[in-house]
Amino acid sequence: MRDRCSGSMMLAAIAAAAVSTVVATSVTQTSAQAPAASVTASDAALKTPWGEPDLQGIWTDETDTPLQRSPKYANQEFLTDAQRQELDRQRSALLRRDKRVERGTELDVAGAYNAAFMSMKRTGARTSMIVDPPNGRMPPMTPDAQKLALAERDFRLALLQSTETCKSKSVACNGGTYDPTPSPLLAELPPRYNTARMNRHDGPEDGSLPDRCLTGGLPEFGAATGSFRRIVQTPGGISIFYDVGQGQGWQRNIVMDGSPHVPASIRQWYGDSRGRWEGNTLVVDVTNFSPKTDFQGARENLHLVERWTRIGPTALEYTVTIEDPTVWTRPWTVKQDFTRQSEQDNRVYYEPRCVEGNYGLPGLMRGARTQELAFAEGRGPDPATKDNATDFVGVEDDPLQ
Question: Which listed residue, of 41, 299, 315, 343, carries a Cα 20 to 30 Å from 157's Cα?
Answer without folding.
Answer: 299
